[in-house]
Amino acid sequence: MHGLIEECLRSVPEVVHAIARAEGLVPRRVARAIARGRIVVPANPRREHRLCAIGEGCSVKVNVNVGTSGTRCDPAGELEKARAALDEGADALMDLSTGGDLPAIRRSILALDVSVGTVPVYEAVRRAGSAVDVDADLLFRVIREHCRDGVDFLTLHCGVNQEAYAALVDDPRVMGVVSRGGAFHTVMMAERGEENPLYAEFDYLCEILAEHGVVASLGDGMRPGCRSDAERLAKSTEYLALGRLAKRALSAGVERMIEGPGHMPLEQVGYNVGMLKELTGHAPLYLLGPLVTDLAPGYDHVVAAIGGAVACQHGADFLCMVSPAEHLALPDRQDIVEGTRVARIAAHVGTLSRRPDGAAVRHEEAMGRARRGLDWDEQFRLALFPGHARRIHVRDGDLETCSMCGDLCALRLAGDLLPACPKPPGEDDAA
Ligand code: SF4
Q1: What residue ranges define each of the domains in the chain, with the CATH number in brackets?
Q2: 110-163 pLDDT, tens digit each
């Protein structure tokens, strides 16, 4: 996988054929999109794992964050949460650990069969003791270690530069900085009066990433932390920096994706996604949320799914799971399960909107037919969460209809009178 961009400029490598088969795309089209920086495949050559292609034309993927904190440090529990997320269909994991033996925790997550991302600045801060004591040497050393361990993508807050910091000061926000990595870099810059090393030495950073075949996830350290911060200058200043850096990374042969906002009103989601796509040359877009209301703690997974589905309709490619514990606590296993399921629904809805001729749409059509036929086994087979659906259906008995209308089931009453709609070609292919 080393130098995938260069390989795709010359030919169609075998890995691209595998991706094309999995995504139902034309291999040459996938290779062209990788070469143009519109699809990334986070796959560090040091590890073998199932592929996860993110970007133009691909189905929307879901990342799940796990990781210890300084307050709750249970590495075995985090590993169990990671496995639960994979059981629920997560396409990628991020280890955001900040408590305990960070390299050991990272390696345990890296043993799983999945693309894994990390945020190296977290470990740099832990090693230095505080954000202000992190210098460029330490930060780049940690980045190299994560690359050598086999991490597939790194969140790097390169756009948190002095200009973005000045925008933060000139145009204050209610929530200030809510990204952990963004806050670390802001403190480093403010206290030391220096530029963010990831921005100042971006070419060197690209050399490291290219050497190790690791994808850069250009972090959104200035993402708004509440709806009313969405129109402040810091976010847009960072967008411009990310646009320039995305193009430089591509020129250096580095696969990269862009992380996006944050909290914002629903009506702003579409144009923010469009702006990021335009500024970055249509780089794959990785979103947390967007969270479109701040008033539903406990249900932020649902809030994020609403924003995420709309974002995918406008071009977002990769959704980060938000759990019911968001803004409240470190998620437990059940939070991870619930958040992953809801994120998968948003991703599926997003895939439907961007692939109207794809397998996901045929899958939907098959479900309509199974419902009309009151074919419960087929409905459960097609459902995203079969066990959950079956449990609800059978709780009033194993009925021919369901207990909602019972003997007045509309499907049964009118079904025999109306002609059946013919199956579209390919429906038999539905999962
Ligand atoms: S009983 Fe009502 S809700 Fe249930 S399958 Fe029939 S029409 Fe649908």
Answers
A1: 1-36 (no CATH), 42-354 (3.20.20.540), 372-423 (no CATH)
A2: 999 999 999 999 999 999 999 999 999 999 999 999 999 999 999 999 999 999
The best mutation among 409, 412, 413, 416 to test binding of ligand 1, ranked by most ligand atoms within 8 Å of the C-beta, falls on 409
What global pTM score does this model have? 0.94
Q: How far from the centroid of its chain's Cα atoms is residue 297's Cα?
A: 21
**Alpha carbon nearest to ligand 1 atom 6, residue:** 409
Cα angle 206, 246, 26; round to 5: 100
Taking the centre of ligand 1 as the mean of its atom positions, its distance from the CA of residue 394, in whole angstroms, is: 14
Q: Is residue 355 very low, low, confident or very high in pLDDT (cuts 50, 70, 90)?
A: confident
- At 193-230, the pLDDT tens digits run 999 999 999 999 999 999 999 999 999 999 999 999 99
Q: What is the rounded CA–CA span in Å between residue 240 and residue 268?
A: 17
Identity of the residue numbered 315: G
95 sits in which H/E element: strand 92-95
Q: Which two tokens stand for residue 25?
A: 């795309």
Quote the pLDDT of residue 415: 79
Distance (Å) from CA 407 to ligand 1 centroid = 9
Output the CA 380–ligand 1 centroid distance in Å: 15
- CA of 386 from ligand 1 middle (Å) equals 18
pLDDT at 1: 45
Ligand 1 — pocket residues by CB below 6 A?
401-402, 404-405, 409-411
